[in-house]
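Notes, p. 3: input format for complexes.
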Amino acid sequence: MPHVITVDHSLCRGCNLCMELCPKSIFQDSADIGPAGLKVKEVVSPDNCTGCGLCELCCPGAISIDPLPHEVFTSICAEQKDRLVERPARGGWKQVNSLLTPGRYFMTGNDAIVEAALAAGCRFFAGYPITPANEILEEMSRRMKGLGGKFIQAEDEIASVFMVMGASWAGLKAMTATAGPGFALMQEGLSLADMAEVPCVIVNVQRAGPSTGQATRPAAMDMREARYGSHGGVQRIVLYPDSVQETFDLTIESFNLAERFRVPVILLSDGYLSHLSEKVEIGERLRIYDRVYVPGEPAFGPTPDSSAPSMPRFGDGEDLQVTGSTHDRSGKRSTADTSVQENLVFYLDRKILSRREELLDCEEMFLDDAEVVVVAFGTVGRSARWAVKEARKTGRAVGLLRPRVVYPFPSQRITELSKSGAKFVVPEMSQGQMSFVISQCITNEVVPLPQPNGQIIDPRRIFRYLTEGEW
Amino acid sequence: MNVRELRESCLRQVRTTFCPGCGYEIFINCFLKAIEGLGRRMDDYCFTAGIGCSAWVPNNYFRADNFHTAHGRAVPAAIGLKLANPDLEVITIGGDGDLASIGGNHLIHAIRKRVPIAVFCLNNYLYGMTGGQAGPTTPLSSRTSTSLDGNSEEPFDLVKLVLSVGGRYASRYPTAYPHLLKKGIESMLAADGFRFMEVVSQCPRQYGVRNESSAASSMIAWQKEHYLSKEKARGLSSSELNGKLVFGNFRTAGEYVQFLTEEQ
Ligand SMILES: Cc1ncc(C[n+]2csc(CCOP(=O)(O)OP(=O)(O)O)c2C)c(N)n1
Ligand code: SF4
Ligand code: SF4
Ligand code: SF4
Ligand SMILES: [Mg+2]
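Output follows (735 residues plus iron/sulfur cluster):
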């Protein structure tokens, strides 16, 4: 039977491959120049064609051999649309039973992260050994299987964060845990998590740096990296607890925020808090948020109200295009359009910033009449709290502000507090990272109290500063 | 269905932005023919890709779930997807720079971890997207935009690499043999475990123009001259094999090394 061969001139690139591969010399140059500026081909002696198919296999869609009748051809696509409709919407708030029997426990900060993550529904963990986060990796390797979750030890932290993102798109709540050097390796992946709106939780158990520094010693030296470490620099949600109980609570909160905002959430800890053993109260019920999926809705922002878009998972039949390139709401790459790029970046920021009131979470003590406001983050808050209380006993008008949510930075609250003309002092287990951030929001005096020596700050040292002005 | 029809139903758009004569078009066509041959649909599979011209193959065009990750990171993302949902059939498509240079460590560890994913490395011998710089598979003395006097670094033999770290499924097909490539893809998709294919693919725009010829057709002719199927190569002497590269599907390093000559 003779074969019907056509060349669609609008698609012919003039590459000559059909001429090279056709054993029967059926193609030749036509007089026309195609879109690629090369001569498009024409069919000269179709009767010789054997139907071997080589020409169509090497051609970018211009050549068509023996086309099917129209009805038969469209069937595949139609079926695909039908499948989508059957799927129910899912996600939102729910109450779940705590995994542990309710009651009082004595556990380390690292254990609290594991327990809380599992309770929040985390069912995928990928990680690479690093002090002082090792216990999280080890405990996850023991616990995940029993819960039907997945654990994998990755070849490095770059792989960890990409595995976590893969798992997240497969529909699981996923996390990894690391420390300084590993956190640096994850920044490339985190930037993709920002851009492609991939919910996940990254624990950074901070240790004294730069570089390998003092691997076993506590520090708070990645505070700004957590927010600004990735290329692109969009807004991040960063949390830092000060006790094991709060580590438990904020781990659950991290998952809820990751799922609600569709962002990577950074949970900070440090070499002290991670190994500190303390009492933790576990309640009966937990409030958990699962990412929302509405079949057929666009999977990416910018959404009209800057809330997180619907998140399907791979296998839902949505034909997802997930990319770190600039994209439209369907996920299709759109890298030439300046407004798509700008709107996307502003949206990624707005998704977090437009809800910063709600994200404001600070411990506050004696702030009403404070002339000196101590701002402390994480572990330093423990020392600062004692020092502020003691200084009050001596009649000093001092108060404490301890943001549990470090970013988005509570700049409104700090601006409000600055109106009294108070002085701000910022003890930090670093050379002074957050004091700089505070001084950017206000014109009041901001005093850095740096201690980058790999030790927790002695409460008496802060007390001495508050009473004698000496650091 | 003919290729044109397969492209219309399985690709997001028939028209691509690859250069005229790019071998990736042949890979796309053979891939579509292979899934048709297996009685499967495009969206039975899901894809991860890195960054490069090769990454555009699935991400821009395949009508299925796709994760276009970062340069070199397609394999760990595929592992995450596959572990998290073992029902997904996960395929990674990347370039030689993507999978063997920046992502080389991920590749060899995926083999060791025995994660059941299929990895296609579209080997055009250099970094196509960024302008034709030398990469981990650039042949000795080839000219690239960073080796204008000829590449002086030893290239990886990707099949040897995969088999030597314990891979149990490593194949190589050049785009000059589309029917064999299609069959190779078919067997690979039907198999289990970690599978790897090096798709030797002409890049007339960056490689051809600096080396044998900027014409895709002469690059295809070159492939035909230099690549020999393992069936044809079997029984040939070392001197007959000299200068030839063998393609096909290999399950062990032992099976593969018999086709390597002294220099290789
Ligand atoms: C971390 C990082 N480094 C460099 C790049 C720039 N880059 C984009 S594509 C590419 C090379 C692509 O070469 P290959 O993987 O062989 O794919 P091809 O374009 O040849 O198909 C590079 C280096 C990048 N995107 N990310
Ligand atoms: S293979 Fe296709 S695109 Fe290339 S010259 Fe022939 S008809 Fe045109
Ligand atoms: S099907 Fe084969 S013989 Fe017919 S035109 Fe194409 S390459 Fe030539
Ligand atoms: S640069 Fe090379 S690999 Fe990239 S599209 Fe062009 S021909 Fe293909
Ligand atoms: Mg390449």
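DSSP finds twelve helices and ten strands in chain B.
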